[in-house]
UniProtKB/TrEMBL annotation:
Keywords, comma-separated and alphabetical: Cytoplasm, Exosome, Nucleus, Ribonucleoprotein, Ribosomal protein, RNA-binding, rRNA processing
Keyword Transferase applies: no
Designated name of the protein: Ribosomal protein S5 domain 2-type protein
InterPro entries named among the record's database cross-references: ExoRNase_PH_dom1, ExoRNase_PH_dom2, ExoRNase_PH_dom2_sf, PNPase/RNase_PH_dom_sf, Ribosomal_Su5_D2-typ_SF, RNase_PH
Length: 244
């Protein structure tokens, strides 16, 4: 895992966004846990028109084909509805996108889970992207980590994730799909905010050292904001849960 710097963020450019947000603003974020009765833990997230549902099941016994292991394993599976996939994506493209998202989700979440707490077993994380208007990978990661916490899975820390793009020299947090289409560079960051340990980092495009630093700092700040929303959601759910 990578540990990033903690310096104050400096964003060098600004622009007017179509929805009126500032460059460093999220869309209105809504999270809710315990939304799937049959799941051990679950979470639903909305970022305007980006909507994702996650259910956590298990642990279950590991299949022999994966070999012997004293620690547990996360199995992440992502599915896109037709609303999320879009008209320009055929079945093969959709399946490839789902596989890539599933692998990215496992990479982002696995370092945060105390896998030795369920040896020789698997925890299944099922993700359904219901609609996507940008930033759905970050939303899925954030919701999945919240669902793991809702399932009382022991974690080193929760893992928020967010997306930053560069459009005409401006850095934009939580981009919509139209902003993603206009971008010439992007950063997807997932990290454990309490230690600034990065569990996933994906950068595309050509960046100067100053731009790269500013983009990472903006993404880190966004993750810190999401961590507070995740924490508040879990605390609210615990406070309203019926007494056992």
């Amino acid at each position: 895992m990578l540990i990033l710097f903690k310096n104050k963020r400096v964003i060098p450019y600004s622009m007017s966004r179509a929805d009126g947000r500032g460059n460093e603003e999220f869309r209105a974020a809504f999270l809710k846990t315990k939304v799937l009765n049959q799941a051990k833990g679950s979470c639903y997230i909305e970022l305007d028109q980006t909507k994702v549902m996650v259910g956590v099941f298990g642990p279950r016994q590991e299949e022999r084909k994966f070999g012997f292991s004293e620690t547990g394993r996360l199995n992440c599976e992502v599915r896109l509805t037709s609303f999320a996939a879009g008209a320009g994506m055929n079945k093969q493209m959709q399946m490839a996108a789902e596989r890539n998202m599933s692998a990215a989700l496992e990479q982002a979440l696995t370092p945060s889970v105390l896998l030795d707490r369920f040896p020789k077993a698997v925890m299944d994380v099922y993700v359904m992207v219901l609609e996507s208007d940008g930033s759905h990978v970050g939303a899925a990661t954030t919701a999945a980590s919240t669902a793991l916490a809702d399932a009382s899975c022991e974690l080193f820390d929760m893992v928020p994730a967010c997306h930053v793009v560069r459009v005409n020299g401006s850095l934009l947090l939580d981009p919509t799909s139209s902003e993603e289409a206009l971008s010439d560079g992007s950063v997807l960051l997932a990290l454990q905010p309490s230690t600034n340990e990065v569990t996933q980092l994906n950068m595309t495009g050509s960046w100067s050292a100053a731009e790269r630093r500013a983009a990472l700092e903006l993404a880190m700040g966004g993750c810190a904001q999401l961590k507070e929303v995740m924490r508040s959601t879990l605390l609210e759910a615990a406070a309203t849960a019926p007494a056992s």
